[in-house]
Design a protein that fits this description.
Distance between the termini: 35 Å
Structural class: mainly alpha
Shape: globular
Radius of gyration: 16 Å
Order of helices and strands: HHHHHHHH
């Protein structure tokens, strides 16, 4: 619950700040943050797994950073993903927690964005077109998830965050 409370408060504030920051600058900042964080977590994985625990302090920190990133970049997942992958005992617990977080925070973000006028008919139509690709991705991802060990899965998560950052940075 602390992770969601911190997320909700900071995402609402960040969305209101969003209109004051230039888009290219935001993309460069986000890309660099994602690359650096993924490298840091990759190289210091064992140390971080000893430090990061499911405590209220870590949850508030991950939720706060997730809320800020969600409000500014519509990318609230990485801080919580990094927290959960290091605090949960295995990939199955991690996946259950991250899926719950994704459903709840996306519902919150949708409501806040709708209140701020960001949800339009075009957004709705685009969403409907994306559902087919989403279904294919879920099925392929589920198959791959079953085949990966916990260790390899963790490094794939770190790599995915870093590659996302690189793509954002290169397309800025």
């Amino acid at each position: 619950l602390p992770i969601l409370a911190a997320f909700f408060l900071t995402s609402a504030i960040s969305i209101s700040v969003l209109e004051r920051i230039e888009g290219r600058t935001m993309r460069i900042i986000l890309g660099m943050i994602l690359i650096l964080v993924s490298l840091y977590f990759s190289f210091f994985k064992e140390k971080l797994q000893r430090i990061i625990r499911p405590t209220r302090r870590w949850q508030l920190g991950a939720g706060t950073i997730g809320g800020i990133m969600g409000g500014l970049f519509a990318m609230q997942g990485p801080p919580v993903v990094l927290y959960l992958i290091n605090s949960e005992p295995d990939k199955y617990h991690y996946m259950g927690m991250v899926q719950t977080y994704a459903v709840l925070t996306n519902a919150i973000m949708l409501a806040v964005r709708a209140c701020n006028g960001y949800v339009t008919a075009t957004v709705g139509v685009t969403y409907l077109y994306c559902l087919g690709g989403l279904l294919i991705g879920v099925l392929a991802g589920n198959l791959a998830f079953k085949l990966l060990s916990n260790k390899i899965f963790t490094y794939i998560v770190y790599a995915y965050i870093g590659v996302s950052g690189l793509i954002i940075l290169l397309t800025s």
